[in-house]
User: What shape does this take?
Amino acid sequence: MKALDYSIRWSYRHIPISTYCDIYKENLPFPVGSGEAICHFTDQFCKETGRKISLARAMRNALLTKETRTLIWDEYRNTKKGGRW
Assistant: This one.
């Protein structure tokens, strides 16, 4: 997903079931923020929930301003369901 000059990528692991989110800034080869959401073994995996939790944690770790976080959340909400980010 692209928002402003940031690129957001998600990846998934199977053991333990978890979702990772990395936020990259243009022209930087390393992520400026990363977040992880681990699914409890008794919970049902939900891709949407994992993405939201990991994105929130990645933005917190990236130390983004409130305005930037708001624009990223708006872009996330406006993407079509089932579409590729």
